[in-house]
Amino acid sequence: xxxxxxxxxxxxxxxxxxxxxxxxxxxxxxxxxxxxxxxxxxxxxxxxxxxxxxxxxxxxxxxxxxxxxxxxxxxxxxxxxxxxxxxxxxxxxxxxxxxxxxxxxxxxxxxxxxxxxxxxxxxxxxxxxxxxxxxxxxxxxxxxxxxxxxxxxxxxxxxxxxxxxxxxxxxxxxxxxxxxxxxxxxxxxxxxxxxxxxxxxxxxxxxxxxxxxxxxxxxxxxxxxxxxxxxxxxxxxxxxxxxxxxxxxxxxxxxxxxxxxxxxxxxxxxxxxxxxxxxxxxxxxxxxxxxxxxxxxxxxxxxxxxxxxxxxxxxxxxxxxxxxxxxxxxxxxxxxxxxxxxxxxxxxxxxxxxxxxxxxxxxxxxxxxxxxxxxxxxxxxxxxxxxxxxxxxxxxxxxxxxxxxxxxxxxxxxxxxxxx
Length: 420
What we know:
manganese, 2 domains, 13 helices, Amidase_Cbmase, alpha+beta, elongated, hydrolase activity, metal-binding, 9-stranded mixed β-sheet, 6-stranded antiparallel β-sheet, Alpha-Beta Plaits, 23% strand, Aminopeptidase
């Protein structure tokens, strides 16, 4: 077993991951593809060199365990995913896995073991850009992935099914079809996922890391239609118009008013109309618009807020039909529940930060993470964000190693307290 300085190990691993998956101007690590495979190999080789026990489950989850004093106890787990978006940054997901190994290196350098096992996870297929299904790897490990997904979900670049890509990588899609699980919630003491922040909050606050309060639930309608009637812009009076743009504009205005009220009440909400367009083959400056295609993405830590948004959408649709003669069809939607972090783990992270003299804040995660799968299965879970310049899902991610080191100190103190 080779001793490693934690930060030297982290820097070397980040360099190796970048080199192995370089796809200018960033990196690409496709889910169940070559880049992800290379990343898993790099991480496993490092873990084995450090003396960790390594195994891979039937869906490709890499489990790396540093034995504790009492091996009969459920382990504490940490880690994240190792896939990355096309031409993305090097730290999204990978920072959480590397931090787990850096934590073991720190314990080894101090000649200490925890009271129980510490298991670091390298999770597969978290990024939805490759397959249109969220949290594939963690949900598959818990037996949560619907059995049809291996044969219906196709990867965006290849067109092949998840089952085909899993088989190519040496894993077992039948494990998912059968609804089997490799992770038992009863055998996990706690899970903490370190991850770069994917927005500007920590940069704006000038803080190295943050404790996550929860992962926002999502209400998403990707294909919405407003259908009215095309007509002449000059010849048709207001009372005779069925203006699809005005109907969707009213929806947007009502949603923003709700957003204002929610924020005044110190509740959580973000909403996005990411697409809003009239069909190019029909629209013209002299036409009353008869059709609009749009999308809705609404997120909140509170189920009650998502309920309020759904009620507003129904009310606006009824009003648009009655007053404007416009039909609002929100299409097929998806709703994911919020995942709230465990209060005791959050307290352990706060106490660790205070003891280390590291300033932190608490914040909501607007993006989804594998940690949500652990929460769904009842595992006490928490997340630790690391400051990251320039956002995420782009080649300009710029996490500083000093911030990584600060977050590592916070994680280390919390893990030791939790393990005890």
